[in-house]
Write a structure and sequence with these properties.
Number of domains: 2
Helix content: over 70%
Number of helices: 9
Distance between the termini: 40 Å
Order of helices and strands: HHHHHHHHH
Strand content: under 5%
Number of strands: 0
Structural class: mainly alpha
Shape: globular
């Protein structure tokens, strides 16, 4: 049953994820698109875009939309899709919430210890890797086009990516302003 699978998958993702919502995206994609085929790559990309533009943490927002879409795509009625949405959202946060309550006192007391510092030093590269994996999985034909099929659209997409990266990374341009400009440009060009 999809509801039990949603609970198990999102509990696992929430519990074993480090690095926040962007690091979760590659794990969510792997479980919902690759392994279970509940969503298409295009649907997942749309979910990521919506999750980024709505208030709240991107990982929880993505879980909410994935839960809804996955249940709906399995042929269940809309009211059951809403239950899937709530279930996925709660599943991704319940266990990490309790774990953090239990270990926060220890971490605060021993934050300067060599063991705690070593654990966090080891987690940093893994977090960067998960965020990089999320970025790479979004660089698909659905998002960028294909250099073979649509060379102009692909060129524009790559140029937009490079310009937005440069503006936000090196010029420290407000990301909201960059997103708005890219959205308007996308409406005009595509």
């Amino acid at each position: 049953m999809i509801f039990l699978k949603l609970f198990i998958i999102f509990t696992k993702i929430g519990t074993f994820n480090f690095g926040g919502g962007y690091a979760m995206l590659s794990l969510i994609h792997n479980e919902t698109v690759v392994k279970n085929a509940w969503l298409t790559n295009s649907e997942f990309t749309d979910i990521v875009a919506i999750s980024q533009s709505t208030p709240g943490p991107i990982g929880i927002n993505a879980a909410t939309y994935v839960g809804y879409t996955a249940v709906l795509n399995q042929g269940y009625p809309e009211w059951m899709a809403m239950i899937g949405s709530v279930l996925a959202s709660l599943s991704i946060i319940w266990l990490p919430f309790f774990i953090m309550i239990l270990i926060s006192r220890y971490l605060m007391t021993h934050r300067d210890s060599k063991a705690v510092k070593s654990v966090f030093a080891g987690l940093r590269p893994a977090i960067v890797g998960l965020i990089a994996a999320a970025s790479l999985l979004l660089m698909t034909k659905d998002n960028f086009g294909s250099p073979k099929d649509e060379p102009i659209g692909f060129g524009i997409s790559v140029a937009l990516f490079a310009v937005t990266f440069f503006l936000t990374r090196y010029r420290k341009t407000n990301p909201i302003l960059v997103m708005l400009c890219c959205g308007v440009l996308g409406l005009l060009v595509f």
